[in-house]
Specification:
By secondary structure, the protein is mainly beta. It is built from 6 helices and 25 strands. The strands form 4 sheets. The chain has an 18-stranded antiparallel barrel.
């Protein structure tokens, strides 16, 4: 297959490209855009009081405290929480949220919806923060949306409430500031009578400076197709592309970050003449992603969702060269008319140990990618050494544990894990959930940073077993005509990977 000609992909003149390079692709402007979104949000939440043109936003104030038997926070008390809680064990957190929406223009079927929100957290301690976990504006209309800022970005397919977390982007890390556009929901293709529907989006973001390569840019592109229409059984398939690119290396070298480089990133081809050697002969940036396949089944008694997600780290993964490596899950939701206490049940199995087979010299292969085969090294990259990590949390599945050293990246990516989660609805609108994970962890194989010994054992030899358990309850409380929710959670870890600890979380949310 011939390589696309980048020059033919854009009719922009030189001055137009310079504007894009300066205002969109320079990392420092990511901070500017985020501050702009927050400023516009503050203006919006003052408008209802001043002019009564917008509905009052939903406001809430929350406080949480965690106590732990060790210096570490139990795994499921910190994971898949959008990076809000630290890993340091005992801690306190205060949170203020404001979210709102307003429709305007046109008639009911053609109206626009403006959504806005902010989520501010304050957490003292060694890993202290006072920051916006969210701050966004979103415009919906004509079946499309445009969103900018920092917002929760979870998988539309996988069960983020009870599951481990997607292999692509989960709810584990702090949201990445970005600009995103796409389809608001599943959209029917013309002339298919709703039998074929599609859903997708594309985003450009900024990862900041606390990395081995600083001021890295972010590209995300996700698309799914669904087949079945009104039939009880709907099949689906899709692919996600994520790219870390651009940025500044520790020696001050600037990696390519122009608009032309963005086009190369978007279609996953090699870099131009100014790109580093590995980017010129392989693909530009740290390209990763996932294949998604599964089905939805809707019956009178229950709804069921089955999914299988394959990680993409190299071109070989596009050809399913490591089909054993996948996240497989099933979610069952009983119909509400059955009045069962069980609201939802999720089981998942994670296997990522194969990684192109046994480690061996890469004879006759692409030595710029790796000196060895059997080293797909999920979530890691030779140049972008921090890996698939943002603000010290893995962006994808949290069982892939990152090192505190940004030069090491993710040190556990060969995993065999079982996970079960169940949620219950109890009388009095009380919600109860519990989940447990058993994982056998093999660390990672040595990469090009230690290339001399082809027989080098994995980082964990022998493997390390880990148990992580969780249970939580949320109780609504009405007091003095005010709405409160009391949260109590417990987490327990047993093993040498996450450590041995027991911890509890107590929280109170006041909804205004």
């Amino acid at each position: 297959m011939s390589t696309p000609n980048i020059k033919s992909l854009s009719n922009l003149n030189l001055s137009q490209r310079c504007i894009l390079d300066r205002w969109i692709f320079k990392p420092t402007y990511g901070i500017f855009y985020f501050k702009l979104i927050l400023t516009l949000f503050l203006i919006l939440i003052t408008v209802p009081t001043a002019t009564a043109q917008l509905a009052k936003p939903d406001l809430s104030f929350e406080t949480y405290g965690i106590v732990s038997s060790s210096g570490n926070t139990p795994f499921w008390l910190q994971s898949n929480r959008h990076g809000m809680f630290s890993t340091e064990g005992t801690q306190f957190l205060a949170r203020f949220q404001a979210h709102g929406a307003e429709q305007f223009g046109g008639r009911d079927g053609n109206r626009f919806t403006l959504r806005y929100g902010a989520d501010f957290i304050s957490r003292p301690g060694e890993q202290s923060t006072a920051s916006f976990n969210q701050g966004y504006l979103r415009l919906d209309g004509w079946g499309l949306f445009l969103q900018a800022g920092r917002f929760h970005n979870t998988s539309p397919i996988h069960d983020e409430e009870l599951g481990m977390g997607s292999l692509g982007v989960s709810g584990n890390a702090t949201p990445i500031p970005q600009i995103r556009a796409g389809l608001t929901d599943w959209t029917s293709l013309p002339f298919t009578r709703d039998f074929i529907q599609i859903k997708g989006h594309m985003a450009h973001g900024w990862l900041g400076s606390e990395r081995y390569v600083s001021d890295v840019l972010y590209h995300e592109k996700v698309g799914h197709a669904r087949f079945g229409g009104d039939f009880p059984l709907n099949l689906y398939g899709g692919i996600a592309q994520y790219v870390l690119w651009g940025g500044t290396e520790p020696n001050g070298t600037q990696r390519p970050n122009t608009f032309t480089d963005f086009l190369r990133v978007a279609i996953a081809i090699s870099g131009g003449e100014g790109a580093p050697g590995e980017d010129r002969v392989y693909v530009i940036g740290n390209q990763l992603g996932a294949w998604d396949f599964g089905f939805f089944l809707e019956l009178d008694a229950f709804n069921m969702k089955v999914y299988r997600q394959f990680p993409l780290e190299t071109k070989d993964n596009l050809k399913f060269k490591s089909p054993q490596d996948a996240l497989t899950g099933i979610t069952i939701e009983p119909a509400s008319k059955l009045n069962l206490p069980v609201r939802k049940l999720t089981y998942e199995f994670l296997y990522t140990k194969y990684q192109d087979g046994p480690r061996r010299p890469n004879t006759g292969g692409d030595l710029t990618r790796d000196l060895f085969r059997g080293n797909e090294n999920y979530y890691n990259h030779g140049s972008y050494r921090t890996g698939w990590v943002y603000n010290n949390f893995t962006i994808g599945n949290p069982l892939f544990i990152p090192s505190s050293d940004p030069n090491i990246g993710v040190f556990n990516n060969r995993i065999v894990g079982h996970h079960l989660g169940v949620s219950f609805s109890l009388p009095g609108d009380i919600s109860l959930s519990t989940k447990g994970t058993f994982s056998r962890n093999y660390g990672k194989r040595w990469d090009n940073r230690i290339p001399e010994d082809t027989e080098k054992a994995p980082l964990f030899d022998p493997s390390i077993d880990q148990w992580s358990l969780f249970t939580g309850i949320e109780i609504p409380i009405a007091f003095q005509q005010q709405n409160f929710n009391l949260t109590a959670e417990a987490g327990y870890d047993k093993g040498k990977l996450a450590g041995d600890q027991f911890g509890m979380l107590i929280g109170l949310r006041w909804s205004l």
